[in-house]
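INFO  loader      accepted 1 record
INFO  loader      residues=130
INFO  predictor   begin
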Amino acid sequence: MAATDAETDAETVARKYIQAVGAHDEDPLDDLLDVALVAEFAGSTLDKEGWLKALHRLLPALVRNEIREVFSAGDRACVVYDFVTDTAAGAVRCVELLTVREGRIAHIELLLDRVAFGPVNEELAQRAAS
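INFO  predictor   done
INFO  writer      dumping tokens
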């Protein structure tokens, strides 16, 4: 089957990724993220290992991801979702711009309101300290 079939198109891969993270299911992430992944957030650039570590660090505060919209064109997808937490931040609206190649996410750009996300980081720091 072609790399653009229903299982490997950008929208399907993007949804699988956001849903897996929201469900705390880290197993499929290795297959969904390309070995040469480049992930960008707040002026930082992470490789696959760094991105997986960052996601793993956030999971204790994450209740679920609620997908609001998914837009796609060719190998690009844009996912708008609420990162629902058990912290004072509640739900934080996030946008991920993803590039999918051969059924794997090769590039991620995460956009969110860092001030709104602040209570999540504060709560995780408190939990780690206790």
